[in-house]
Amino acid sequence: MSEALLALGGNVGNSRAILDRAVKLLCDGTDVRLMARSSDYMTPPWGFKYQPPFINLCIVVETTLPPRDLLERAQDVELRLGRDRAHEKKNGPRTADIDILAYDDLTLDEPNLTLPHPRLFERAFVLVPLAEIAGDRVVAGRRIGDAAKAVDAAGIERLLPQAAQP
Predict the structure, then answer these.
(1) Which residue(s) pair with 62 in the sheet?
(2) Looking at the chain, which terminus has fewer C-beta neighbours within 10 angstroms, N or C?
(3) Nearest 5°: CA angle at 113, between 51 and 136?
């Protein structure tokens, strides 16, 4: 089994419910097992400023899938949840976005898949939730907790857990 760190986010529809569903669809308990999940965080829009705030979270999974297959599964989940990559505005609103941040200690640079994620250390909306569940994990020579402290986390708000739904 390999360990992967993933980031999820969205700002269209009921983002918390959509991202809960994304985690359930992604983590089948066989090929992808959920090991840890951060709190949900409300974060300011990034990239395209004039859009609703995002809900972001991170997960740690154990997986038997190689990186490319894990990416395909993530993109299939995005599609099932209404994401239309072909027609969306870059950095614009979306129902669900799932990024692989790191996969074991693998370094990879292929079309549509770079590991570790090339902008991981620039994004407070990823580092803050990731530090909650993997603060001591070292990626590309940097401890996640230290990287989270070094970025501007202004406007990022940890949300209280949602009430259990029947």
Answers:
(1) 3, 33
(2) C
(3) 80
Task: Give me the DSSP letters along 70-125.
Answer: HHHHHHHHHHHTT--GGGSPTT---S-EEEEEEETT--EEETTEEES-TTGGG-HH
Whether 26 is in a domain gets the answer: yes
In tens, the pLDDT along 103-155 reads: 999 999 999 999 999 999 999 999 999 999 999 999 999 999 999 999 999 99
> CB burial class (10 A; 0-12, 13-18, 19+) of residue 88?
middle
As a whole number, the mean pLDDT across the chain is: 94
Output the pLDDT for position 48. 76
Report the CATH number at residue 105: 3.30.70.560
* Residue 163 within any structural domain of the chain: no
